[in-house]
């Protein structure tokens, strides 16, 4: 493995809110760690990382400390998951990923798709090996589910179309929350995929909501198992592969 490049020079640095030192779940097929970056442009009421949204929290470690950790784990870890918040808002993201790739790691990026130009640039430079993009809800309920009064669906659609072109390995995923998602919403998502591209999405995951202390809003729950199966059946014709996360 190559040595890391020191980041103390005057370049934009990512604000690192947390580090999960090892995960067998976040990066499909790889032993990885997960890096949490601060800041998000959505306000989803079911977010597990609400404390990262406004980017005002105290950093958990510096970028140099993260890179030193990764240097020590070369040969033990295979991949690095970059999540948030919304990582593509960080001006120093591309430089961080260059350093991570320089050490030989595969990189998975979690994104809400609101920054398609950033996503495309990262993929074009070979800085991302796998993308997991959230599909919050049907187009009609997207803004509401994302906690906003309005949302630029054109940007989300640009990212969706780009991923469905198959330039990089990817998955779409929807966190299912009662009462935010209905069978009609899932049908609308499937029809949305078909409208945007003749190519069906490669992988689509349904993620039942799990309540935690970090979720700000109360009264939210996962749909019943029978409804989850109904959602899966509705989406099956629209995608190549569909799974309910936790039931693979």
Give me the secondary-structure topology:
Layout: E1 16-23, E2 32-37, H1 63-72, E3 79-83, H2 93-102, E4 106-111, H3 116-124, E5 130-134, H4 142-145, H5 153-164, E6 169-176, H6 183-196, E7 204-208, H7 225-235, E8 242-244
Helix pairs in contact: 3-5, 6-7
Name the helicity range: 25-40%
Give the CATH H-level superfamily: Aldolase class I
Average pLDDT over all residues: 92
Helix-strand category:
alpha/beta
**Any guess at the CATH architecture?**
Alpha-Beta Barrel
Query: What is the C-level CATH assignment?
Result: Alpha Beta
Distance between the first and last residues' Cα: 34 Å
Q: What is the molecular shape?
A: globular
List how many beta strands DSSP finds.
Answer: 8
N-to-C SSE string, H for helix and E for strand: EEHEHEHEHHEHEHE
Major sheet size, sense and barrel closure = 8 strands, mixed
Please give the domain count. 1
The fraction of residues assigned to DSSP E strands is: 15-25%
CA-based gyration radius: 18 Å
CATH topological fold name: TIM Barrel
Number of helices: 7
Low-confidence segments:
1-10
With strands numbered from the N-terminus, the spatial order across the biggest sheet is: 1-2-3-4-5-6-7-8
Description:
The chain is of the alpha/beta class and 248 residues long. It has one domain (16-244): Aldolase class I (TIM Barrel), CATH 3.20.20.70. 28% of the residues lie in helices and 19% in strands. The protein has an eight-stranded mixed β-sheet with strand order 1-2-3-4-5-6-7-8, covered by helices on one side. The relative contact order is 0.13.
